[in-house]
Specification:
three-stranded antiparallel β-sheet; 3 helices; about 15% strand
């Protein structure tokens, strides 16, 4: 074993120590995902969600099922560690 000093990032989670507090963040992981899937330069919008609306299958040209699965897998990783707020939306996308 080798001592590499204080931990900075572990399992994709960045640890920031401020006084006696420890902040866990995955913002760097989100940026990495946006760049990986070519969504880094998209315009952000606030979107409300109505849980009673039934999602429909996209009939226009979309992304491959493999790429879609990769994106959903990455989002599931986020929901498990630091972004529980997106869990419902990701679950709905996963089940379609």
């Amino acid at each position: 074993m080798k001592d590499l000093g204080p931990v900075d990032v572990i399992l994709g989670i960045k640890l920031i120590k401020k006084n006696y507090d420890m902040i866990l963040t995955q913002s760097h992981y989100v940026e990495k995902l946006l760049k990986k899937f070519n969504y880094f330069d998209v315009k952000l919008v606030s979107t409300s969600y109505n849980s009673f609306i039934k999602l429909k299958k996209n009939l226009s040209k979309g992304i491959s099922s493999h790429k879609y699965s990769q994106i959903i897998g990455c989002l599931l990783h986020l929901t498990n560690f630091s972004r529980a707020d997106i869990a419902y939306a990701v679950d709905r996308l996963e089940s379609n």
